[in-house]
Design a protein that fits this description.
It contains 11 helices and 10 strands. The protein is of the alpha/beta class. A hairpin with a 2-residue loop joins β4 and β5.
Length: 255
Amino acid sequence: MSHHLVEVKDLKYHYPDGTAALQGVSFLLTHGEAVAIIGANGAGKSTLLLHLNGCLMPQAGEVRIGGLPLNKNTLSHVRRTVGMVFQDPDDQLFMPIVYDDVAFGPLNLGLPPAEVDQLVKDSLARVGASHLQDRPPYRLSGGEKRAVAIASVLAMSPDILVMDEPSAALDPKTRRQLIELLKTFKHTRIIATHDLDLVLDLCSRTIILKDGQVAADGPTLDILQNEELLASSSLEKPLRLQGCPVCRAKSGSAD
């Protein structure tokens, strides 16, 4: 299934002020992989993700989606293939009511109204937001906005799902619902996040970015148990791998 492949070759990007955001990033993702992109603030995670659906174009190097190089001629195809959930839902929600936001993408694909209506209802139901369809987005909570933003992407039936900090601003119940939802998405998933416990739940592979470069790429458990590697990238082990602090304190006092 080559249309699910994501290949990044020596990708470089500098911001207008000269700041180097990406300095030669390379990796290959195959069909069905769930991959986390982690790193400290400013490591280049969001900049990398914005290249995967053409919000940013490579200044040097190459991005290939499904075997096609990302460029102006392939941009529309890439955006149909790669569904992007932005870090800030307000960047994604702009219509008067939720229903219209979720319907926007399918309508622009030229799908018939009856099919669009079913896609909207199914997508909102998948994220537990059916009751929000007639609400204006600006009246929603942060977690509700994020759910609707995810629904707007799912309605496009993407082959590749890219998400930037998907669990931010979610309460524990909604976060757990999101994790269970993402487990049902069988195609390629790329998730940039600081939520390393979510990474443990969803991603079998993890890439660490540091100063715009790949510092590590491998099995998630191996990377998240490597305290020296994490510390060198300004990261900490996820809470689930740190053990009980009360037990550690008792063990220390016993010594």
